[in-house]
């Protein structure tokens, strides 16, 4: 069996949220002992925890996540070690490291601050020139262990989404992929008529 790594954070009540977002509520509504079954109810925003940003999130688009092509969410993965870089810049080595049409993951190590104010307020950002390189490479997804690849007015978000490159935020465990020679990323959103979606993202060694 190939090795699998879960790249997702748990969804639970009181989990960390981007400043200004609603806090999720996950509650049990039925109990086996008295109702003869268990059930839970989830109230959650689309951009909490490990999630996908679709075009409608930042653009004047009418395309829901449920309408995005499934092929965009499965593909060969590439992890870049960008630790200790407040501004994540293009490097010459990326020409060979980043295959055309791949899913690129940025390992910053910032997920160690997940749940703290520092995680949301002091995170690294992607340099626009590096963003243009990713667009030229026609990657499928850009994923990161960050709450966002940029800050307001979110130029990197908009540039990627205009190019049809979707964004995976709040990943974790990317350090476990650094030694892998080849892997596939599977990051399927829910089939929601919404601008984004929670995602269970995994990596599968190949």
What can you tell me about this protein's structure?
The protein has 206 residues and is an alpha/beta fold. It has one domain (4-205): Putative cyclase (Glucose Oxidase, domain 1), CATH 3.50.30.50. The chain has helices at residues 32-35, 94-97, 117-121, 128-136, 155-162, and strands at 4-6, 25-30, 39-43, 51-53, 74-81, 87-88, 103-107, 125-126, 141-144, 166-169, 183-189, 196-205. The strands form three sheets. The chain has a seven-stranded mixed barrel with strand order 4-10-9-7-5-11-12. A two-stranded antiparallel ribbon has the order 2-3. Strands 6-8 form a two-stranded parallel sheet. α4 (128-136) packs parallel to α5 (155-162). The model has no long low-confidence stretch (mean pLDDT 97).
């Amino acid at each position: 069996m190939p090795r699998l790594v879960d790249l997702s954070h748990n969804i639970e009540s009181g989990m960390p949220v981007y400043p200004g977002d609603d806090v999720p509520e996950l509650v049990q509504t039925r109990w086996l002992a008295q109702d003869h079954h268990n059930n839970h109810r989830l109230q959650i925003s689309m951009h909490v925890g490990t999630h996908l940003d679709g075009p409608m999130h930042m653009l004047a688009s009418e395309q829901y996540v449920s309408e995005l092509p499934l092929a965009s969410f499965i593909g060969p993965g590439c992890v870049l070690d960008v630790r200790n870089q407040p501004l994540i810049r293009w490097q010459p080595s990326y020409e060979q490291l980043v295959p055309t049409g791949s899913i690129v993951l940025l390992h910053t190590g910032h997920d160690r601050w997940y749940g703290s104010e520092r995680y949301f307020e002091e995170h690294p950002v992607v340099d626009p020139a590096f963003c243009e390189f990713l667009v030229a490479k026609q990657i499928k997804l850009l994923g990161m262990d960050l709450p966002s690849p940029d800050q307001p007015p979110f130029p990197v978000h908009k540039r990627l989404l205009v190019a049809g490159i979707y964004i995976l935020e709040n990943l974790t465990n990317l350090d476990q992929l650094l030694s892998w020679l080849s892997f596939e990323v599977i990051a399927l959103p829910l089939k929601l008529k919404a601008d984004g979606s929670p995602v269970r993202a995994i990596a599968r060694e190949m």
